[in-house]
Specification:
The structure holds two protein chains of two kinds. By secondary structure, chain A is α+β, with helices and mostly antiparallel strands. Chain A is 54% helix and 13% strand. In chain A, helix 3 runs antiparallel to helix 4, helix 4 runs parallel beside helix 6 and helix 5 runs antiparallel to helix 6. Chain A is elongated, with a radius of gyration of 27 Å. Chain B is of the alpha+beta class. Helix content of chain B is 51%, strand content 16%. Chain B is built from ten helices and nine strands. A five-stranded antiparallel sheet of chain B has the order 6-5-4-1-7. Chain B has a two-stranded antiparallel ribbon with strand order 2-3. A two-stranded antiparallel ribbon of chain B has the order 8-9. In chain B, helix 5 packs antiparallel against helix 6. The longest helix of chain B has 25 residues. Chain B is elongated and about 85 Å long. The chains are: A alpha+beta, B alpha+beta. At the A-B interface, helix 2 and helix 10 of A face helix 2 and helix 10 of B.
């Protein structure tokens, strides 16, 4: 018994040290951009920069300048042109971990603030990327948070929008992986429905060139989405998109002198628009559908030259 | 007393006829007014080969439909339209001419309010799209206004007037912010946005969501162009936003106003700290936390709660919101 008492204290110290070193596996992120230092303390050499929302692993902790410092390893991030894992020290004040009180809301809140910055004229440079990373950290660090699905969706959405802008500039193919992950990880949720809707964009033609094939295919895609996701926040928009494409087909077939197909498309467009008017009385889609119905009735063209 | 039945029947018939005639005359005198839902050319006579008078854009005010006629199976309308003469000076004039009837939506059109409103939404969407139709924001603004003007009893009237007023406000704000005076600290130095439509909205739809939104936009005219490192601006602005939140607790902008107030107090924490005014800095920190906590407690839905939580976390950890050296907020 005495022997156990003698070794108990050193054992507890060892256990505490082991637990502390276990913190080396703790994941974290940063809420404000910070310099990466070679050692704890602002007097030490700066070795790099850590952007908001970066995926960090805590390797150790120390106090310096009267505040805690973290030794972190930063995962490679091709989007930030960081191809290899780097490590260094950062001040702890801006670091958020899974154990930060209300950490999910705090990280999500900074993501929202960054998104606001990205939308502002003259807002912070790369704020959209910051928001994208911060939102992604929410489900990673706080798996069970009520904000996890929304964080994953918003991150995937920002990534998609940035990739789309890139595609329009340089033709770089858009990666569907992140949106598909939202659909797979959070099935039957609003976020999965939004991601599924966004994925339809990948199936749209870049140009119609006045031919009916594309609007026919796209109308069917949107109609199918509305049928399969009637509760989706995008269900009405999908129906409207299907109706509008049928209205465009009315004009395309009329120009081709294919009157029977033009008439069939008009009927289909009217039926879809009427479905919006009957089923979805809220928001802007009902008056838009009414305006489309009016144009179909008065034979006002929606595709090509719509003016006289 | 006995009634002579045939005499009574004649009297009732005569009364009924007088009533019908009076009603017909009253309706006959009601002017048919409306707007145009697509850009159209106006002609001297109902014929596309006739001389063109002007091009009428979407949402133009058709103050009178004077006549209609069908030529070669096509229905034409003779209309009196208000068009711009000088965009800079905002002068207008009335032109009468013939347009194809299909593009005309009037007070007599079934679901006219919804059709014009739907066109306004389409135009607004265009305005938000990269490479969208030129002038589509102005189209949307005019179309929304026509819904309110010609369909005042429509359930869409309040929302339409709000959207028209807001688009006008945002367009003017862009203009105002481009001028050098926009960088002056004192807001009275710069020419503000025209408040007339917003005030009209507040008067016509008091105690509604739209009046609350209009009141929030009106705060823009009272904000400093730049703070120039002085505390009086964020102090005053924080008060303005806090007052708004107190007076409009049900407003869709109440949580945002509280956050704007809390964020300015967080800025003051750093401003006073830099000026070595510790007491004032501490007071601002408490005030900021209190306002942020109010958002968390009262407005749990939406993005303002996590934003408030992040602000409280930053205050607790001593993360700066304002850089005293650059005299700019930390974005």
């Amino acid at each position: 018994m005495k022997r156990w008492k003698k070794i108990r204290v050193p054992l507890l110290i060892l256990l505490a040290a082991a637990l502390a070193s276990g913190a080396g596996n703790e994941k974290a992120t940063i809420l404000r951009e910070s310099a990466l230092y070679s050692a704890p303390g602002t007097n030490s050499q700066k070795t790099g920069q850590v952007e908001r929302g970066r995926d960090l692993t805590i390797l150790g902790r120390k106090d310096a300048d009267g505040q805690p410092w973290f030794n972190v390893s930063m995962a490679s991030d091709p989007s930030a042109q960081i191809t290899k894992e780097v490590s260094g020290w950062i001040p702890g004040a801006a670091v958020a971990t899974a154990s930060t009180a209300n950490g999910d809301e705090v990280v999500f809140g900074q993501a929202v603030a960054s998104e606001h910055q990205a939308e502002e004229r003259g807002g912070r440079k790369n704020a959209a990327m910051d928001a994208m990373r911060l939102y992604a950290r929410v489900p990673e660090l706080f798996t069970n948070s009520p904000l996890a699905a929304e964080g994953a969706w918003r991150s995937a959405d920002i990534r998609w929008q940035l990739a789309k802008a890139d595609f329009l500039r340089s033709g770089t193919q858009m990666d569907e992986k992140y949106l598909q992950q939202v659909v797979a990880k959070y099935p039957q949720t609003k976020q999965a429905q939004l991601a599924a809707y966004e994925l339809l964009e990948g199936k749209l033609c870049p140009e119609w060139r006045g031919l009916p094939d594309c609007p026919e295919k796209e109308s069917a895609i949107y109609e199918q989405y509305a049928k399969e996701n009637p509760k989706s926040p995008k269900a009405t928009e999908a129906l409207y998109n299907a109706a509008w494409r049928q209205a465009a087909l009315t004009d395309i077939y009329r120009i081709d002198n294919d009157n029977s197909k033009s008439d069939a498309a008009r009927k289909k467009a009217a039926a879809l628009a009427q479905q919006i008017v009957n089923q979805y009385s809220q928001d802007d889609w009902k008056p838009r559908a009414q305006a489309l119905l009016y144009k179909l009735e008065k034979k006002i063209p929606v595709y090509g030259s719509a003016t006289e | 007393m006995k009634f002579n039945m045939p005499t009574l029947t004649r009297a009732l018939l005569a009364l009924w006829l007088i009533l019908v005639m009076a009603m017909t005359s009253a309706f006959g005198q009601e002017k048919e007014q409306g707007t145009i839902i697509s850009d159209v050319d106006m002609y001297v006579s109902p014929d596309t080969t006739a001389q063109k008078l002007a091009r009428a854009t979407r949402g133009r005010d058709v103050i009178l439909v004077m006549d209609r006629t069908t030529l070669s199976g096509k229905l034409w309308a003779h209309v009196l339209v208000v068009v711009d003469v000088n965009l800079e000076q905002e002068t207008t004039r009335q032109i009468s001419g013939w347009i194809p009837n299909t593009y005309l939506v009037t007070t007599a059109t079934r679901n006219g309010d919804q059709i014009i409103y739907g066109e306004a939404v389409d135009s607004e969407n265009q305005a938000q799209q990269r490479g969208g139709r030129k002038g589509s924001a102005q189209d949307a603004m005019r179309l929304y206004y026509r819904v309110y003007e010609y369909f005042p009893g429509s359930p869409l009237a309040g929302e339409a007037l709000w959207r028209a007023a807001d688009i006008r406000w945002q367009l003017e704000k862009q203009d105002v912010m481009r001028r050098p005076s926009s960088r002056e600290m004192d807001p009275s130095v710069r020419e503000g946005m025209e408040e007339q439509t917003m005030k009209e909205l507040i008067k016509k739809f008091p105690h509604t969501k739209w009046a609350d939104l209009a009141s929030f936009d009106l705060i823009d005219n009272k904000l400093c162009g730049s703070w120039q490192g002085e505390t009086k601006c964020p102090e005053k602005e924080s008060d303005l936003y806090e007052k708004y939140a107190r007076e409009h607790p049900q407003s869709p902008k109440a949580a945002e106003a509280l956050y704007d107030a809390a964020w300015r107090q967080a800025v003051l924490v750093d401003m006073y700290k830099a000026a070595n005014e510790r007491d004032k800095s501490e007071k601002a920190r408490k005030k900021s936390t209190e306002l942020a906590q109010q958002i968390v407690t009262q407005y749990a839905e939406g993005d303002w709660k996590p934003l408030a939580m992040e602000l409280m976390h930053a205050l607790e950890q001593g993360l700066p919101t304002y850089n005293a050296e650059t005299k700019k907020p930390v974005s």
